[in-house]
Amino acid sequence: MQTVLITGCSSGFGLETARLFLERGWNVVATMRTPRTDLLPASERLRVLALDVGSEASIAAAVQAAGPIDALVNNAGIGMLYPLEATPMATTRAVFETNTLGTIALTQAVLPAMRARGAGAIVNVTSTVTLKPLQLLSVYTASKAAVNAFTESLALELAPLGIRARLVLPGMAPTTNFGQNAGPRMQGEMPEAYRPMLDAVFGAMRGHTGPLTQAADVAEAVWRAVTDPNAPMRIPAGADAEALAASL
After folding, report:
1. Would you state the pLDDT for residue 8?
2. Which of 53, 91, 244, 248 is deepest in the core (most CB within 10 A)?
3. What is the DSSP string of 15-32?
């Protein structure tokens, strides 16, 4: 029976992905900063571990506790929607620490065992904002675009070792999750010149009536990336993501 380790399982994409892999018979190591065992169905195939992807010690402890891993899903991430001028560099570093460096560090931690077995899959969840620029997302987009470049290059060096690396790119999720997630980092003093833009962006998000990306869409895309050897490098997740990717 195969084992997947998934980060960011306390809600949203990570939680739904963990649920899907459990339903389909995998052993699941669901990780989150503050472990909660009530979020997923009780199962002898489920373990919930503490993991802070910004901490090398936490990564090492989680990887050791998880044991052999057949697939790694780097899903943990934090949002950021704010004018660059008003974003403290400490906030920018925190976004990159989680979204980019955390992904790289955890990937590096699982590679020795995957290489020794000559098999494995690494799936990194980024965003379709890396395909089409949007205002006020410069820091967040940069952190996710870096993961795209990292994954595509990594795939080339891992393929001869029997290890696959793939990307899942979700579209716009149902409103407020991103805003709530980003809220604590949107505290810098903002020049009023940016206010109309910020209000318009959040208004558009609240009033969006087109297709959205559901957590189940992302879970299915991750499943495909892990289990289908012929899956493409970039897999859009959600009707809006698929439409955007097809238009480019």
Report:
1. 96
2. 53
3. HHHHHHHHHTT-EEEEEE
